[in-house]
UniProtKB/TrEMBL annotation:
Protein name: Glucose-6-phosphate isomerase
Superkingdom to which the source organism belongs: Bacteria
Catalytic activity: alpha-D-glucose 6-phosphate = beta-D-fructose 6-phosphate
The UniProt record lists the keyword Cytoplasm: yes
Record organism: Gordonia alkaliphila
Length: 559
């Protein structure tokens, strides 16, 4: 690796806010803020045809953003200043970009074709990946075709993934997104929360003789997952008259930690591994995706991986100006750093993508919710914004009012598909999917161009209502279209956002691959458990609020 890049990877002290590119963008924003989106379209009438990028099967229109050709040039200069392309190449080559944990971040290897070679720390990781994939494929085949049975010899009908965070959100989102591709006999369930309501509600639907539990945890030390897995094991043993031999038929583990898996009581023959260079929120395409593979089959899972890989290749090879993850990353930080946007909406016009915004919340907010650089210096700019969203058209009848006329600038990604996986005919003979997509197109149009006072008056709207009905427009959106929501397209979408998140982190100079911010809460929760449960709890807690709250809770619980 270029020694300069190696130095930047290990101790990045570039202050991006002190660069000429940053100052140019500040000046440019002041100029652009005086113009409306409709002015940009008037000045560049072909924007809708020109400000588009095709990446694998995704057709992305970014013309309805508050940016013109000059903006894009300045943003590209910013990316070059931050050496985004070199850092991308370093990540793809297995450099230890996760500096605080001294690890590579090599999720791209999880979707590398079998004939690729990626030697990291002296080891070809692609061969390892395909060995595990083959084992996952054989196991899923056995569950799907009924060769793997429960303790009474019946085929598996229900698969329960027990995991949390990256060990839950990806499989749960994918199971929903690929509803159309699921095995007809096998239902998927996802237990994550330490709230007993989660596991109780799930077990209530299940037959122990035909249920398979997948305990998914990278570390195999996560409190929520281990408790839920113990509850499930107890439930199974109760139904099986305490016969411990049934565990091997009904529990498998996915983890990097064989010792803890064995300590939990799961035979490591029933364990599928992955590696420390796979971050939790980047792990759907590792063994963590086992529940999804069982649901949709190994071939569809292979298509999902191929979709990831196609976007990886686009990210690796396309020049900055035509590179979808880089462009979307730069536009995202254009709004958060130069327009004070504090959130970003993701609005899938596909009900099957209901969990996609929640999945992206972990990907983006756990990756880039940081305020210090890799070198440990305070970051002088805002980093990740809040990501949120709901499928259209539900969102239209809930929060779009604020998108249209509220006082915040909230950039939004609209995601839609040309073909539904199943369509329905409306009573007048039309396509229900066309109704859905006409809402997609209408919303992005109205957000961009609004409705002016002049037009309202010309329509004869009562003068006192005019100010209420004015739609300001100039609300930025990016439209992401694809032919259909196939496994491959889902992989492409996820990889698009993974790399977009990476690009932003590289410009800010932060490490997107650690998550120290979630650790303290876990440690304090463990310490507080004793206070919560012990009626004789001695000294008051340091702060009067937490102390009084726990006392109130204990009293309410009769302690
Ligand atoms: O919330 C912190 C976190 O470490 C996530 O990054 C991770 O996805 C999740 O917990 C679950 O961790 P594990 O897979 O080790 O159980």
């Amino acid at each position: 690796m270029d020694p300069d890049i190696a130095a930047r990877v290990s101790n990045d002290d570039l202050d991006i806010t002190a660069t000429a590119a940053w100052s140019d963008l500040l000046d440019h924003q002041r100029d652009l803020a005086t113009r409306q989106m409709r002015d940009l379209f008037a000045a560049e009438p072909d924007r809708g045809r020109e400000m588009v990028v095709d990446a694998a099967d995704l057709h992305i229109d970014y013309s309805k953003n508050l940016a013109d050709a000059h903006t894009l040039g300045l943003l590209a200069a910013l990316a070059r200043e931050a050496r985004v392309e070199e850092l991308r190449d370093a990540m793809l080559a297995g450099a230890h970009l996760n500096t605080s944990e001294d690890r590579a971040a090599l999720h791209v290897a999880l979707r590398s074709p079998a004939d690729a070679r990626l030697v990291v720390d002296g080891h070809d990781v692609v061969a390892d990946v395909h060995r595990v994939l083959a084992a996952l494929g054989d196991f899923s085949d056995a569950v799907r075709d009924g060769a793997w049975t429960g303790y009474t010899g019946k085929a598996i009908t229900d698969v329960v993934n027990i995991g949390i965070g990256g060990s839950d959100l990806g499989p749960a989102m994918g199971y929903q997104a690929l509803r159309y591709y699921r095995h007809p006999r096998i239902r998927g369930h996802f237990v994550s929360n330490v709230d007993p309501g989660d596991v109780i509600a799930t077990l209530a639907e299940l037959d122990p003789e035909t249920t398979l539990f997948i305990v998914a945890s990278k570390t195999f030390t996560t409190q929520e997952t281990l408790i839920n897995a113990k509850v499930a094991r107890t439930w199974l043993l109760e139904q099986a008259d305490g016969d411990e031999t049934v565990i091997a038929k009904h529990f498998v583990a996915v983890s990097t930690n064989a010792a803890e898996v064995a300590a939990f009581g799961i035979d490591t023959d029933n364990m599928f591994g992955f590696w420390d260079w796979v971050g939790g929120r980047y792990s759907l395409d590792s063994a963590i995706g086992l529940s999804l593979m069982i649901a949709v089959g190994r071939d569809n899972f292979a298509d999902l991986l191929d979709g990831f890989h196609r976007m990886d290749e686009h990210f690796r090879t396309a020049p900055i100006e035509a590179n979808a993850p880089i462009l979307l990353g730069l536009l995202g930080l254009w709004y958060s750093n130069f327009w004070d946007a504090q959130s970003h909406a993701v609005l899938p016009y596909a009900n099957d993508l209901t969990r996609f915004p929640a999945y992206l919340q972990q990907l983006v907010m756990e990756s880039n919710g940081k305020s210090v650089t890799r070198g440990g210096r305070k970051l002088n700019a805002a980093s990740a914004t809040v990501v949120w969203g709901e499928p259209g058209t539900n969102g239209q009848h809930a929060f779009y009012q604020l998108l249209h006329q509220g006082s915040w600038l909230i950039p939004a990604d609209f995601i839609g598909f040309a073909e539904p996986l199943t369509d329905l005919t409306t009573p007048d003979g039309g396509s229900m999917h066309d109704l859905l997509m006409s809402n997609f197109f209408a919303q992005t149009e109205v957000l961009a161009f609004g409705k002016r006072e002049r037009a309202l008056k010309a329509e004869g709207v009562a003068p006192e209502l005019v100010p209420h009905k004015v739609m300001p427009g100039s609300r930025p959106t990016t439209s992401i279209l694809a032919p259909r929501l196939t496994p491959s397209v889902l992989g492409q979408l996820i990889a698009l956002y993974e790399h977009k998140t990476f690009v932003q982190a590289m410009v800010w100079g932060i490490n997107p691959f650690d998550q120290w911010g979630v650790e303290l809460g876990k440690a304090v929760a463990n310490a507080r458990l004793a206070v919560v449960t012990d009626p004789q709890s001695p000294a008051p807690l340091p702060d009067s609020s937490t102390d009084a709250l726990i006392r109130w809770y204990r009293a309410a619980r009769g302690r």
